Structure prediction request, 1566 residues.
Amino acid sequence: MDVDEDDIEKANPPSYDRSEDLASLLYLNESSVMHCLRQRYGGNLIHSYAGTNMVVINPLSTPSMYSEKVMHMFKGCRREDSAPHIYSVAQTAYRNLLTTRQDQSIVLLGKSGSGKTTNCQHLVQYLVSIAGSTGKLFSAEKWQAVYTILEAFGNSSTAMNSNASRFSHVVSLDFDQTGQVASASIQTMLLEKLRVSKRPEAESTFNVFYYMLAGADSSLRTELHFNHLAENSAFGIHPHAKPEDKQRLAQQFTKLQAAMKVLSISGEEQKALWLILGAIYHLGAAGATKDGDEAGRRQFARHEWAQKAAYLLGCTLEELSSSIFKHQTKGLQHATSFRGGPDEAGQGDGSGPKVSALECLEAMATGLYSELFTLLISLINRALKSSQHSLCSILIVDTPGFQNPRLAQQHRGATFEELCQNYTQERLQTLFHERTFVQELERYKEENIELALDDIESSASLSVAAVDQASTQALVRTLARTDEARGLLWLMEEEAVQPGGSEATMLERLFSYYGSAQGVNKGANLLLRGAKPHLFLLGHSYGTDWVEYDTQGWLSHAKHNPAAQNAASLLQDSQKKNISGLFLGRATGATVLSGSIAGLEGSSQLALRRATSMRKTFTTGVAAVKKKSLCIQVKLQVDALIDMVRRSKVHFVHCLLPKAEAVTGGDLRVTHGDSPDSGLMTLDLGLLRAQLRGSKLLDALRIYRQGYPDHMVFSEFRRRFDVLAPHLSKKHGRHYIVTDEKRAVGELMESLELEKSTFHMGLSRVFFRAGILSRLEEQRDVQTRRNISMFQATCRGYLARQAFKKRKIQDLAIRCIQKNIKKNRGVKGWPWWKLFTTVRPLIEVQLTEEQIRGKDEEIQQLKQRVEKVEKERNELRLNSDRLESRITELSSELADERNTGESASQLLETETSERLRLEKDMKDLQARFDSMKKQMESMEMEVMEARLIRASELNGDLDDDDTGGEWRLKYERAIREIEFTKKRLQQESEDKLEVEQQNKRQLERRISDLQAENDESQRNIQQLKKKTQRLTSELQDTKLHLEGQQSRNHDLEKKQRKFDSELSGAQEEAQREKTLREKLAREKDTLAGEVFGLRQQLQDKDLEVCAVNLKLDQLDAELQDLNSQESKDEASLAKVKKQIRDMEAKVKDQEEELDEQAGTIQMLEQAKLRLEMEMERLRQTHAKEIENKDDEVEEIRQSCSKKLKQMEVQLEEEHDEKQKVLKDRRELESKLLSAQDQVRGGDVETEKRLRKDLKRTKALLADAQIMLDHIKNNAPSKREIAQLKNQLEESEFTCAAAVKARKSMEVEIEDLHVQMEDISKTKQALEEQLSRLQREKNDLQSRMEEDQEDLNELMKKHKAAVSQSAQNLAQISDLQAQLEDALKEKQDIQEKLQAVQSQLDFQEQSMVEKSLVSRQEAKIRELESKLEFERTQVKRLETLVARLKENLEKLTEERDQRSSSENREKELNKRLHRQMRDIKEEMGELAKKESEASRKKHELEMDIESLEAANQSLQADLKLAFKRIGDLQAAIEDEMESDDNEDLINSPTGRIRYFYDRSDEEEEGE
Prediction:
């Protein structure tokens, strides 16, 4: 199959085949929408979102998607969180009603049979079930009963639908403050009441007749005379013949009776309804005589059936006959004369149109059923009425759908009733176009939002105008046909009263206004001629649904028939009490508006408001005069419906018909358990495409996708979503007053981080793309839940603390009670206490009884007063309710009267102007008539003279033959010339005619060629338009796809930024932990080194202690040996004891020294921790300072490049100084390292050598001490031993001092290292800062030059703005003066208006004539118009003043900004000077630190030299000690050679050798 490339549209991916929202399709075109709907319908998904609207395809079955369980699934859900369903529409409307407290409306659009009434029932059932009602007044069972009754009395079988609604109705659900249903009502209009008596072929009357004929029991049949049914009926009402149909209808009648019982319709009231229906049936059976029978008398054809109808209605046959057939001509003539003028009234009986007897009978049946239906609506509203207070309401509008007989394969023209239903649907479609396109585009224009949209096609105003357009002379009572265009309804009303008016003339006038005579092109006109003269085609739904109408008999709909009006009086005067009681009670109330809208009863405030709104529609302007016209009532009823819906927030539901063949048969709906036929799940694509084009859903989806469908006022948006930015609330404070809402919303948007393409800031409100506001609502709900959880936690904590405090108080009270009980037990046996407790009650009894009696009396008085006040309050409440209802009624009546008066005055003025115009025309025509009459008389005189002259000439020819021959020859020659001239002229005319015919044929050929070329160009234009639209839609889809990708990229970037921030935070945390670990590792190493050193010192001390203990043991042994010896000397014993005490004291001193060292170690560790904390704090401070410096540098970049030029020289000098400092630092570091190495090397060697010498010295001294103890009487040896001890102590002291000096030197060296590292780090930071400043210098210079130029320009602008502000101030003063003058004039006008109003009130009270009142009202209106003009002037001046003030404020703000920027620059200059001074001070401090380091180095060198000198002296002392020890050893060896071997073995010399061997081993080990 070959397809044109231009007809191919882009397809969506398979994932979009069953998309819930058609607006979410990737490529939005007709084919993709059709495919999506088809796929969803194949999956039994009949509901789809279309932006803000809902699309429902009638499933032609009863699926199980409307159960109570499904209802609760949608309860409380947002639209974005729920699947597409009719319950979702109801939930959205209910949610908006609760949040905004605004009335909501749900309007169902579509063809007949598309399921509008079924969806209406589902909507009502959901709202009643979910919202609930106080006391369960409105249950689902009651509403099911309501729709059962409405289907019985208002539905019938048609060619399009087996159960079609034949009336329009509005279900009003009023809700109270808590969101429950407080009251409800139903208003009906446009009832197709003619269906009772006359209807198209193959269609039935209302269902209730068949229910009653099949289901009435024997008693009711007897009472209604249904035992014998008529074979023929003028109304065509016949019972069904099939048994299964009879059984089904009988069940429906039983169900109808049960429904009436549920709605509290009593048996007598039901009986009255059946009597009226039976009477209508019998009237149809009675029939009427044809015209011309029995000398033209109009009467019943079968009187016995008429007698039954009269009996059922409660009247006589004569009364019934006179109400139907008598006074018809008079009534019709009266109606005609009212429109035609006074000349028509006196023409007699022959002037009025004749009405047949059958038409009179049909009018009576129509009137009876209309009154019956109105009564039924009143009874339903009585059951739904409630006295509870209501706040706002939800309106559900259900109307019959589009009717097209061609769609049902019927070859007939549509009727007038079908035109009315199609006109209603067309008006609702126009409302959809207005709300979806016109208002949105106007709102964008008002808010200065530029939106690139395709040319939106205008609404179907032409087809609507062809039906209801009124002329400017609509109020004038005239029979003249003007050339001004007017609609079909107005033409019918005019032609019905015109002499000789007919449907043909009506159609001719209609085509002259709107139609095309050829009827060739349907695209150019929406009104075309039909195949027959009485047929015409009207294109509904933008020309996608062409309906052919048959106008035969349409003028009868515009004629008043008194029989229909006599029906109400006949029912009110009925002798049957149940009938007359119902209709008499209803006649006193205003339940019907002009015989058209029923169900206006209701006592609630909202019901009264709706009734007042509808009455206003019928009593304003043209409606006040034309509301009695039967044709114009159709327009007025639709106007009232549209006006009522327009006052609320409207939700549209588009019901689509899947296929035309599915509804032409019987009832194809299946039960829940059965599966529908597979053929039902197929769609008629052509029909579906036509419905989509007619509803303009694609255009609505495009404007929804490309525009900003969600919008909120700035203040409302800020109040609602301020919770998402708590930091702004903390910044401004709780009591912050917002002066600029737009600026506050802008800050809020920045904090929310929304992409700029997803919203737009208007002048007074903020607009959002589709889905953005719902996303914000979700975020708000999450934040609100979090805040509520925190609030609950706080409250619970507070309650727990209060409970604890209460427990404490209870504990205290319990203790107090226990204490009192203990005291009571102590005094319980006391006699005086017993006497007191016995006597005190007796004393108080009398007083208590008197107090009780007084209190009882007071209570009784108060009860009486309360009862009296309650009674008065109830009376006042009843009076106030009655007075309020009376006031509302009077106000509505007053409004009606005023509107009627205005209309009458307007009518009078128009008639006066028309009469003056006609009088002027009459005078002109009279003058023309006189002139023509004179001209005709002169012409007659000339003719007479010519005849006389000819007669005299003929007489003269007879008298004179000679002269006659000459004249005869002349006469013959003249005749020949005349004949020749005639032939010549005829030949010329024939030649000219042939030439003209040739030219005509050529022109016709040329015209046909041009027409073909035009058609071809039109086809090309249409193709190009189609291609352009397709490309434009694809471009828009691509743009939307790009915006979606950009929004996703924005979200990904937002997530990436969040991830990067978290990653950087984690990395910083890891880096911080790493540095801490390294620091801890370093500290651990240092501590391990210190611990190792301390352990070494402890081991050394342990060795010393062991040596001392060993020495003590030796001394003890020697002391025992000495004690055993007789030659023991007491002096040596005391000396030894003293030595022992000295050694113990030394051990204690060493232990104390160890404790001091341990405390010192702890103090050092604490100091180390403090230093680390101080370093961390300094690091943080330094980081903050770096950040502050970075900010300052950023500011310096903008304003201080000139200052940097002056600093270049200083920076160079500082750079040189820095190089010198770095050089000195390197030299110092090298010297310090070399000195440190020398010191370390020298100290380690010296320490080792000293330790060896110390150990050797200790061993020698021990041996010497032992040897000296054996030599008691050798005094010189004792002195030497004392000298050696002193030398030993001095050497130990010197060694300890050297160790301490070494440790202090190491600490100082470490401090110097730390200082040097800090200095290096500081210098590196300064180098980096200086290099950064050097790099940024050039950029700052260029920027400063640009800033200087911008500053010069701004100064120029500032000067111009200052001069402009001065001029504006002068203008403001002038405008203020003008404003004061205008206010004074306004006050004067108000005083005059009050005076006129008081005069008007006085005249109304004194019953002045209406003409005077109208003149006063005209004056009042004139004054009000002047006042309104002054108000507009004042508003304009005020807006101008406000605009000038805003300009002045902007200029002052700019001036303040300039001054603040100058101050900032000055501050930056000062800060730069401070920074340079700080840098210089830091350089000075570094120099000081370096000098101090050099000084410490010199001191360390001096210490090292002194230590070297001490070391040399110690080495000399050690040499001397070694020499002496050698001498002692030699002397001891000489003395010991003479002793025995045994003594030598047991003597201390063996021990000395032992110690010598041990000391040698230790030396070898070292």
